[in-house]
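Q: Hi! First time doing this. I have a protein sequence and I read that you can turn it into a structure. Is that right? Here it is:
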Amino acid sequence: MPTLAAVLLTVVSLFSPPAPAPLAWGSCVQGPDDVLGAYLDQAGATCATLQVPVDYAHPSARTSVAVTRLKATDPAHRRGSLLLNPGGPGTSGLELAAAAPQYFGELLARYDIIGMDPRFTGRSDPIECDWTTNTFLRSAGPDRRTFDRNAALMRTLADGCVKAGRDRLPHATTRNTARDIDRLRIALGEDKINYLGYSYGTYLGAVYLQMFGDRAGRFVLDSAVDPDFYGPRLFTRNAPAMEDALLRFAGWAAERDATYHLGASPAAVLATVDRRQREQSIGSYRVDAGFLPGYLFKRLATAEYETMATELGFFGQAGPLPESLENYLRGLFTGDYDASDRSGTPILCADRPVTGDASSYYRDIERHRRDEPLFGPFTRNISPCAYWPVRGTEAPTEIGNDRPVLVVGADHDPITPYAGQLAMRKRLTGSSSVTAHDTYRHTVYKAAGNPCVDRVVTKYLLGETVPVTTDCPVS
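A: Yes, that's right. Below is the predicted 3D structure, encoded as structure tokens:
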């Protein structure tokens, strides 16, 4: 008579998808106008498609996940596969992998660099939400009238995602993406997968560690989100950090008033920025009073001070715009250009439900309007998730383990504030940390130009032991 363990193993196998087939690698180009595919081919990458269950509880229906690989240039010293995730959620892992020869040359010598577009995004059987904008991130504006207008837009955006893929929305979860990563590990023939994740990618990495920790190799989580607070309301505590970053910019711009004419003191620059908060024309576009905070959010994230100072001079002006500002506005008003926020919305909404009571968002904004006048109506605004018609299939993952990962971040990050990074590290009790000090930007490794951070993280990924705590001064 079979043992209870054998019976249980048989039952589990009946509901488990079969092992994935080996990946069939080939050209990344999908057509004559495929710019990304041509870029990947030029970088020396090959591409494949991984078939995964739409619903792991009922694995018969499948969906496609797009994968790319750049093989290690020093195969004699190869350490395995390193999966990259640039965050979002919704940003393309294929695009980041294509940049590996430029940014991650030392790692590419020792690792096969792997990029993956998470399920339902990019080239991975995407849920193409029917939107005429590329992001839901915008300010609620100065009063109840502008808030209600935003709430109506959020309902429309939610309906646009339902139209694109209602049956798949419950399965667009980070937990399912973590399962997809483990299927990818098997298909690659690896006992363990190594990982470098930025921003939202830190949450994805932490979820994988929680679910499949014994299959994790070297893991780097750069600009970590607070794992207890990740979800549609993630930014509600960001206003102080964003104000801090804006003040830093104001000091920089004041020192260069002869070039940018925004003000000769930080206070004068902030007054100029404040005057940009009005309904006005920028080139051929008409923006409302809630436009500015979302714009600042994007530029402060990567400390694009020169770009931002130049662009602010075109607010209220007619005529041609700098290409960077034209692209930003075109995306906001037409949905063109970078649409990662749009493609990531189904993931955000599936991971953690939020209230659909619109008035509760407005009350929250009003409670904080005095101390957060600029960024509070942005960070606390309602989102499409308030009108989401379906829930994810599982509760959010409770992060808590002792896996030896490396948590990296900036002490003045305006997007994932330092307190949240510390919360991630507290949950990962076996982690080490690298902190870029006096750094006012989001994402650090190979992005902030800090040699100390780059050196320590590279050493860790190449197998060396690094200090439990490393403090890196600004370069």
